[in-house]
Amino acid sequence: MSVKPIPDGYHTVTPYLYVHDTAAAIDFYVKAFGATEVMRMPGPGGSVVHAEIQIGTSRVMMADENPEWGNKSPRTLGGTSAGYCLYVEDADAVFARAVAAGATVKRPMADQFYGDRSGTVTDPFGQMWTIATHTEDLSPEEMQARMDAMMKGQPG
Known about the structure:
By secondary structure, the chain is of the alpha/beta class. It contains four helices and eight strands, in the order E-H-E-E-E-H-E-H-E-E-E-H. It holds the Pfam family Glyoxalase.
């Protein structure tokens, strides 16, 4: 039996989140996004050195921040330069559930020029999530035309 180079349950790219409190983050993701916990490896002092959750078809890895190893959470950094897009069947329902679980609205739910209905929240741990449902298939040219029309009259 040979070992698979990409293990079952994983995709080619798997997000790895560093958070201030992984245990609390897992609880939030379960409530907000319907995540299931796959595994958790406890570390010293009640920390979590590695955990994995499943959201829909995607695995997400996470661990408590450890600045000595260069792993800093958005709380320590004062923000994040990354965000995550979560495609779901009912974006409005998941968005409302995330807000009810403690997320902050960054961009309200709306129909987007590129064919999605989406909105963005910041979770209590500083991670940004765009929650979306794809509503129409558009060519790149159609998206560009819609964006150009939307941008007319906007300050540049």
